[in-house]
Amino acid sequence: MKIKISIPTERIQNPIISESIIETGISINIMVANIDSTYGELIADVSDFQFDKIKNALESRGAIVSILDRPIHRDEEECVECGACISVCPMNVYTFDEAWNVQVDEKKCIQCGMCIKMCPHGALKLGE
Amino acid sequence: MVKKSIHEINRKIEDGSVNVVTAEEMVTIVKDLGVEGAAKEVDVVTTGTFGAMCSSGLMLNLGHSEPPIKIQKVWFNNVEAYSGVAAVDAYLGAAQISDTRGIQYGGAHVIEDLLRGKEINVHATSYGTDCYPRKVLETTITLEDLNEAVLLNPRNAYQKYAAATNSSKRILNTYMGELLPNFGNVTYSGAGVLSPLSNDPNYETIGMGTRIFMGGAQGYVIGNGTQHSPSSSFGTLMLKGNLKEMSPDYLRAASFTGYGTTLYMGIGIPIPILNERLAAATAVRDEDITTNILDYAVGSRDKPIIRQVNYAELKSGLVQIEGKNVPTSSLSSFKYARKIANELKQWVKQGEFFISMPVERLSGEGLAKPMKQTQAVPLVKDVMSDFIVTIKKDQTIQEAAKKIWENSFNHLAVVSEAGELVGILTAWDISKAVAENSFDSVESVMTKKVLTCSPNEPVDIAARRLDRYGVSAMPVIDTQNRVLGIITSDNISKLFARRY
Predict the structure, then answer these.
(1) What CATH number does the domain located at A72-126 have?
(2) What is the pLDDT of residues B94-151, one digit of tens each?
C-alpha cells in the first residue's frame, strides 16, 4: 500500500526514517521525498502486513503516517480525453488505449497533484 | 484523369450513393487502390480536430431595454465583453478572464454556460444620450433570450502547431500546459492525420464560404484566420457558426494553470475529392506532418528549436531529446477529432450535409509578420554589470567575505576551474553561516540552484524572473555556462530612472 509520512519541523533533524527501518527491519520503497529544513513529506510503498509495525516505529519518533487510499478521481463528464495528464504524472497513472481513451490506473497514484494543475478542463480531483 | 464536380457529389449525397470516408481511412484506401483508384472511388473525405482555440468569441445581440441603453461597457458573469459596436451588440472573447474569479472563469466559460442553458448575469454601463437615456443595466439572460449568438472565431484550426518543451530547471505554466524541468515532457496540439488544413494544404476546397462542422452544428469558413502563414504551412481559418445550434459535446471551456482561459472547439471539414491531387493530399499521414519542438524556457517570441518532429512521433507517447526518451502529452483530443470526422461522415452519408465550393480561395502564400515596435526593447546585455567578482567553491568563507568587502559587491559568482557557474554566494549567505557558526568552504554555504539569464533576453523577462522568485540578482551566462556579468534589481531601477 502507498503511505504518506509527514515529518514535523521539530523532528526534522532526527534520522526518523533510517531509525524506523533499522528497528523494524522493514524495507519501504520511497517514491517521493520532499524534505527541507522546515518540513518533510515522503510517499512510500510498504506491504500491507508490515504497515502496522512500520507505522508504530515512525510515529513513536514523531512522524505522522497516513494511508493514501483516496487516489485521483476523474470526472468523466468534464474530461475530453486529450491526454494532457499523461506526461506530467511521475507514476504513469494515465495511458491511452487503442481508441485514444484515457485510462486511469488509480492504484499507482501517489496523490502528488501534478495532473490536477495540468488538466485544462478541471476534470481531476483528489480524494473523492 | 479523374474529374468530378461539387454538383455531382451533392447529387450523390442527395440520392444516398455518396462514398464518404474519414481522412484516417483515406490513408489505407490510397495505399490499396492508388491515387487514381481512390479518387474514382471516394467522393468526400472528412477531417476533424478538437483543441484549445483561444482566438474564439461570441458576437451577440441583447435586444433593446426599456428605457433603452447604448452600452459602453458590459460584463457577463463579471467577464467583460467589447461593446463599442452600436447599442446592444457585444463581442465576448473566449480568453477574457473574470474580474472577480481570475483565470478560473472566462469568456469561454460564459459561452459554454450559455450553451448549457444556464442563466448569465449581465451588468452594463453607459454615459446616457437623448436617444439612449439609460446609464446602468442589470439583468440575467439565457441563450434563448438573445437575438443572435454567433460564434465568430478569428483564428481556428491551425494547420499544425509547434510542440513545447522546457530546458530550464523550473516548472513552466504555459498555454501549452505544465512543462516540466530539464526536458521533463513535451506537449503538442493538433489532430495530425485528421487535421483539416493538413489534408488540403493547397487550400483547393477549403476557402471562404466552405460549409463545415462547427461545435456540433453547421458553420462556415469566412476567410483565412488571423496570423495565417501559408508559406510556413501554418494556415489558419476564420469561422462563423450559430451557437444556438451547437452542442456542449463539441464546445468546452478550459483554463490553463498560470495562463488563462480558452475554448476547446470541435471543427470538422469535408474535402470533396474532385481530382487525383485531392485524393493524394487527403492520404497524408501523421508521419508526413512535421513540426518543431520549441524551448519555452526562453520567454521571447522566437523560441529556440530543440528539434524537428512529426505527429507520429508525438502521438507515440515518447520523443527523443538529447538521447533521452521524453513523454508527450496531447492538449487536443484525438478521440474527439475522430468522433467529429465520423459524425460529419454520417451527416454527409445521410444527406443532411451538402458540400460547398469556396466563393473565394484562401491565400496560399505569405507569412505572418511580427509586431512593428517603435521602442527598442532593452536587452539584459545592455543593462547588466560586466564587472563580476568570482570565487572558487573550495575557497573559505573568510576569503569570500574579504572579496565582498573589498569590492563592495554583494553577489559572488562561484565558478569551477573551467570558469563554469556552479553557485552563487551573497553577503546574506555568509551572515547565515557566521550566525550558525559553520565556516566551511564556499561550497557548503553557497546556493547551488542559481537563477540565470542569457545576455540576449529582454530585460522585462529577466525582471519578471527576479520578481517571481524573489531574488535580487542573476548571473548572466553564455551557452557554455560561463559567467558574462550579473543583472541586479539596481541595474533595472537605473534603466527605469533613465527612461522617465
Answers:
(1) 3.30.70.20
(2) 999 999 999 999 999 999 999 999 999 999 999 999 999 999 999 999 999 999 999 9
Domain extent for B98: 63-146
Q: How confident is the model at residue A11 (pLDDT cuts 50, 70, 90)?
A: confident
Q: Residue A121: closest CA among chain B residues belongs to which residue?
A: B254
Q: Do residues B142 and B169 both lie within one domain? A: no
A71–chain B nearest CA distance, Å = 21
Cell digits for B498?
A: 533613465
Question: For chain B, which ranges sit under pLDDT 70?
Answer: 499-500
Residues 6+ apart with CB under 8 A from B61: B88, B89, B146, B147, B148
Please provide the DSSP assignment of B406-447 as one string.
HHT-SEEEEE-TTSBEEEEEEHHHHHHHHHTT---BHHHHSB
Find chain A residues with C-beta within 8 A of B216's C-beta: none
Contacts of A80 in chain B (CB under 8 A): 50, 252, 264, 333, 336
B157 and B52 Cβ atoms separated by less than 8 Å: no
- Each residue's pLDDT tens digit, B411-449: 889 998 888 999 999 888 888 888 888 777 888 888 888
First to last CA, chain A: 18
What would be the CATH architecture of the domain defined by A2-67?
2-Layer Sandwich (3.30)
Q: Is A32 on the interface with B (CB under 8 A)?
A: no
Rounded to whole angstroms, the Cα distance separating B129 from B163 reads 51
CA gap A123, B7 in Å, rounded = 45
B362 near B203, Cβ under 8 Å? yes
Q: Do A81 and B178 touch (CB under 8 A)?
A: no
**Residue B278 shares a structural domain with residue B399:** no
Q: How many folded domains does chain B comprise?
A: 3
The partner residue sitting opposite A88, judged by closest CB among B185, B254, B255, is B185
Q: Residue B109 to residues B33, B102, B263: CA-CA distances in angstroms?
A: 46, 12, 8
Residues near B478 by Cβ (< 8 Å), separated by ≥ 6?
B454, B455, B484
Is the Cβ–Cβ distance between B299 and B170 less than 8 Å? no
Q: Is A93 on the interface with B (CB under 8 A)?
A: no
CA distances to A30, A109, B374, B461 from B257, in Å: 29, 21, 32, 19
Distance CA B349, CA B342 (A): 10
B247, three cell numbers: 452542442
Give whole-number Cα distances, A60 to B76, B89, B102, in Å: 56, 68, 45
Give me the total of CB pairs closer than 8 Å, taking one residue from chain A and one from chain B: 70
Distance CA A70, CA A109 (A): 9
- Quote the crossing angle between the two packed helices B489-499 and B459-469, to the nearest 10°: 130
Burial track A16-26 (b if 16+ CB lie within 10 A, e otherwise): bbeebbeebeb
Q: Output the CA–CA distances (angstroms, integers) from residue B50 to A88, B111, B113, B150, B419, in the order listed.
A: 21, 17, 19, 19, 49
Question: What contacts B96, CB < 8 A, 6 or more positions away?
Answer: B79, B80, B81, B106, B107, B261
- Spans of all domains in chain A: 2-67, 72-126
Residue B131 bears catalytic tag = yes
- Sign of the alpha-carbon torsion through B418, B423, B424, B429: negative
Mean pLDDT of the region A99-126: 92
Region A32-39: mean pLDDT is: 83
A87 with B257: Cβ contact below 8 A: no
| B356/B384 same-domain check | no
